[in-house]
TrEMBL record:
This is alpha-1,2-Mannosidase. The keyword Calcium applies. GO terms for biological process: carbohydrate metabolic process; endoplasmic reticulum mannose trimming. Its cofactor is Ca(2+). The active site is at E132, D313, E409, E430. GO terms for cellular component: endoplasmic reticulum quality control compartment; membrane. Belongs to the glycosyl hydrolase 47 family. GO terms for molecular function: calcium ion binding; mannosyl-oligosaccharide 1,2-alpha-mannosidase activity. Ca(2+) binds at T515. It comes from Sexangularia sp. CB-2014. Its EC number is 3.2.1.-. The chain crosses the membrane at residues 7-30. It holds the Pfam family Glyco_hydro_47.
Length: 640
């Protein structure tokens, strides 16, 4: 009857709301636009606190509202935060006078007008950490150059860049015609005589990066090529410098030095980084495991604990990322061998990894979970093993929640307790890095909400428990705040939280992040040094086994290692054969353990392809930029 129509319509509305409510809740995680603004607030509070209370010191002490310098001594946090400001800017906020884009332009202006290397030239002959200055300062400069190179083609960004620059420096003091013929120097720009374009600023900062690289280069003058840990600005390596260094300290240069060589034409940097990585790979044990501290003179290990975290982590990362950035099969092979060995000998079913003796993988030396190990899922995602990455990330987040928000530096898995002296959480980014990698890989699946919820857990802990009036405090133990806010908090943790929650961010595109989260463009060939452009734009196909050197670069520039003798090439050919045989044995064992090879989630190196019953030399489909960013699994299947 007609009198029931209003009642029926009301019932229909209630039913629709009941059905749609869960979808609305899910969408709030998939499209977390309001939450992203919270990350902007974190950046604003952290950066403003640093500028007010610490600059030009390296890092902020958030409890005492003061600054401290450890690594560089000239505004390290400002260098580190520069690329974060770029990542947090977008097309809808470039006109925001107080927004991230404005912060990025202002920071870059300060670097252009007063080189961040200036105090090094005028100050004392201070000692620099080769590793830290490389990933933070050199990586930061190359990240800015990468961003400016890519944005110089964006008319909207260029327009707002010019408006902000002009307003800041009062370039109006000289008419346009006079500016056109003014000397193009940093001093002229500071005087308002000309308005530098993005590419001109990028060129100047690249010159700074080259000068900094030359300061670091003497550290690589060792018998093995593995660099010393520290170097002095003017006098080089001290006579009493220890020859012992961490594997990560010696092997984390392939990205920065490789890009610096390609953009400046100075191939000394790539030779040095390549030789160091080569020596570390050659130092592996019979089980393809690496220790964590090595003598740069003898090539022998002083600490034989093999793991994926402290003192070795970023070497795995750089082998894989440099293989992708430079399309280098040799680096991919090296990564595959070492990562496979880590999974076989260190990995545990619950997602935790323990340290073992590199020559006796059955002997556990550290039954520990450490905060630095949390980067591993991000590496696994890049290599295509998303399912294994998910297992490890869940285990790490369970530990995060157990300790009230924050992965401790070291937790004893055997005893279920924290190691004395390693109870703290230092605002580290590794867990956020892995969660954003998984969120991107699963962005078109319901599982994306799981990873974004974990990122929200991290953001909630940071804002609710660690925010203080002068920044963000670390923890010295689960219950006590520490007076420490390292630059990597703004450089990495904040950036990766933004990328995790903003899956449409332009910096999810063709970028590789260095271990300090500075983005390096995959389109580096567009901006390569003109003299070497034909080499890198048209690389010659390589045979299956060669010296670990790109052929074209070897022909045109000389070797990346000390000599190009036939004997040296033969040595590396034999080493490649040993690697291939060991990999084939592991591949066959994996095939035998699976009833159907198509279900085996085993990484296939480019030179081997897992099929039912064994391995073949038929290569799988090449890893391209498109497949990389779709995070296609490298399933070892016959239909590949």
């Amino acid at each position: 009857p007609p009198c029931l129509f209003p009642f029926l319509w009301l019932c229909l509305v209630y039913c629709m709301l009941f059905l749609l409510f869960p979808l609305v809740c899910l969408a709030s995680f998939i499209e977390p636009t309001p939450i992203v603004h919270s990350v902007h607030g974190t950046l604003t509070h952290g950066l403003s606190s640093y500028l007010v209370h610490a600059y030009p010191a390296d890092d902020l002490r958030p409890l005492s509202c003061s600054g401290t310098s450890t690594w560089f001594g000239n505004g390290l946090t400002l260098i580190d935060v520069s690329t974060t400001a770029a990542v947090l800017s977008n097309k809808t906020t470039v006109v925001d006078e107080q927004g991230a884009f404005a912060s990025f332009v202002t920071i870059v202006q300060s670097f252009f007008l007063s080189s961040p290397l200036g105090p090094l030239d005028a100050g004392p002959d201070r000692s620099l950490s080769v590793f830290e200055v490389n990933i933070r300062v050199l990586g930061g400069l190359l990240g800015i150059v990468s961003i400016l190179r890519e944005w110089q083609h964006d008319e909207e960004r260029v327009r707002h860049w010019q408006q902000r620059w002009q307003a800041h420096l009062a370039v109006r003091s000289v008419d346009a015609e006079a500016r056109q013929f003014a000397p193009r120097s940093r001093q002229a720009a500071a005087a308002g005589e000309w308005l530098p374009q993005m590419d001109e600023v990028a060129d100047a900062l690249l010159d700074d990066a080259h000068r900094l690289g030359l300061i670091l280069l003497p550290a690589f003058d060792t018998r093995t090529g593995i660099p010393y840990g520290t170097v002095h600005v003017r006098s080089g390596v001290a006579e009493d410098e220890t020859p012992v260094t961490a594997v990560a300290n010696g092997g984390t240069f392939l990205l920065e030095f490789g890009l610096l060589s390609r953009w400046t034409g100075d191939m000394r940097f790539e030779r040095a980084a390549r030789r160091a990585a080569e020596a570390l790979v050659a130092s592996r044990s019979a089980f393809d495991l690496l220790g964590n501290h090595i003598n740069t003179s003898s090539g022998t290990y002083t600490v034989a604990d093999a793991g994926i975290g402290h003192a070795v982590d970023s070497f795995y990362e750089y082998l894989l990322k440099a293989a992708i950035l430079f399309d280098d099969d040799q680096l991919w092979d090296w990564y595959s061998v070492l990562a496979d060995a880590a999974e076989v000998h260190l990995g545990r079913a619950k997602g935790y990894y323990m340290e073992v003796h590199m020559d006796k993988p059955g002997a556990v030396t550290w039954p520990a979970l450490g905060a630095l190990q949390a980067f591993w899922p991000a590496v696994l995602v890049l290599a295509g093993d998303v399912e294994r990455a998910a297992v490890v990330a869940r285990a790490n987040h369970a530990a995060w929640l157990e300790y009230g928000g924050g992965l401790p530096e070291r937790f004893n898995l055997a005893k279920g307790e924290l190691y004395a002296g390693f109870e703290g959480y230092w605002l580290r980014p590794e867990h956020a890095e892995s969660l954003q990698a998984l969120a991107l890989a699963d962005r078109h699946t319901p599982r994306v909400a799981e990873w974004q919820t974990m990122c929200l857990d991290m953001l909630h802990t940071i804002e609710a428990d660690l925010r203080v009036p002068c920044g963000y405090a670390s923890r010295s133990d689960p219950h006590t705040l520490a007076d420490r806010m390292d630059s990597f908090f703004l450089a990495e943790t904040v950036k990766y939280l933004q990328l995790c929650l903003d899956l449409d961010n332009e910096f999810h595109g063709d970028w590789i992040y260095n271990t300090e989260a500075h983005p390096l463009t995959l389109h580096w060939r567009r901006y390569v040094h003109p003299e070497f452009r034909p080499i890198f734009e048209n690389p010659r196909p390589r045979p299956g086994h060669v010296c670990p050197v790109p052929d074209a670069a070897l022909d045109a520039l000389g070797p990346f290692i000390n000599s190009s003798t036939t004997e040296q090439c033969t040595t590396f050919l034999r080493d490649d054969e040993v690697i291939a045989k060991g990999r084939q044995a592991r591949c066959e064992r994996a095939a035998a353990s699976c009833s159907d090879a198509s279900s085996c989630h085993v990484r296939c190196p480019p030179s081997l392809h897992l099929v039912t019953g064994g391995c073949t030399t038929t290569p799988p489909t090449p890893l391209t930029t498109n497949t990389l960013h779709q995070h296609v699994h490298w399933h070892c299947a016959t239909d590949q």
